[in-house]
Write a structure and sequence with these properties.
heterodimer, A: alpha+beta, Heat Shock Protein 90, B: Transcription Regulator spoIIAA, 5 strands
Chain lengths: 146, 114
């Protein structure tokens, strides 16, 4: 794999839907820059989109006084994206399993599952106030997880 | 690109040719409105042609489920055809492939409606 310099930048965004596109676009650009295959780059951008949607809708609830902070870091080992909101926080361990038969016909609740299915590591951290999701894709994991 | 669709009829089956992205704020509401409209007009056999759908997120998956449920609750049937690999993969990992009747091509899909 070609050596890629470490990159790090942060976006502080309003709690509006166009912010979701900003996060998604930045993630895809950085993933391609890291040398991830097209398919994996799109998976990375999609789960970052899911995290941003959660932050805007469920975390900040479109509150114009609250912001979404998206930090992107590309190291020699991994692409790391952190998405934080200023909401009331939530317990990721209590989200229903969308694969359970009784949940298959639910219209929501698949975002966090997709993050866990498509990334190598997903971590949740409670802020005060808010929640930060950390998404990590190792640069050696070039095979699609889908 | 936001979602677009065209509606046509083949042998009593209403086919929605969809293209673009089915995501929160872009295509999900469009799909919901389109299927509700068809159901309200009495369509019972609905086939979603996803050949032109290159991107779908969890909100889009939720809208597919909502469309499926709405049609089933009206006594109809909703099937999918021409899935891209990306969309197909998403249905598999979310186990929605066990919910939807996914057909390989339009002719067999149309013929599969009772």
């Amino acid at each position: 794999m070609a050596k890629v310099a470490t990159h790090r930048f942060t976006l502080v965004l309003d709690s509006v839907l166009p912010s979701v596109e900003r996060v998604e676009g930045a993630a895809e650009t950085l993933a391609r820059q890291a040398g991830f295959a097209d398919e994996i780059s799109l998976q990375i951008s999609m789960v970052c989109r899911e995290a941003a949607v959660n932050a805007v809708l469920h975390g900040n609830r479109y509150d114009s006084q609250k912001h979404v902070t998206a930090s992107f870091e590309l190291t020699g080992q991994a692409l790391i994206v952190r998405v934080g909101d200023e909401g009331e926080g939530f317990d990721a361990g209590k989200t229903p399993n969308p694969l359970a038969p009784e949940n298959l016909l639910r219209t929501t609740g698949r975002g966090i599952f997709l993050m866990r299915a498509l990334m190598d590591e997903v971590h949740f951290r409670q802020l005060s106030p808010g929640t930060e999701i950390t998404l990590i894709k190792n640069r050696h994991s070039q095979e699609s997880k889908a | 690109m936001s979602m677009k669709f065209k509606t046509r009829e083949v042998d009593g089956v209403t086919i929605l040719d969809m293209s673009g992205r089915i995501t929160l704020g872009e295509g999900s509401g469009t799909l919901r409105d389109a299927v509700r409209d068809l159901v309200s007009k009495g369509s019972k056999k609905i086939l979603l042609n996803l050949e032109g759908v290159d991107y779908i997120d969890s909100s889009g998956l939720g809208e597919l489920v909502a469309a499926y449920t709405a049609v089933k609750n009206s006594g109809g049937d909703l099937k999918l055809v021409n899935l891209t690999r990306k969309v197909s993969d998403l249905l598999v990992i979310t186990k929605l492939a066990t919910v939807f009747d996914v057909q390989e091509d339009e002719a067999s899909a149309v013929g599969s409606f009772a």
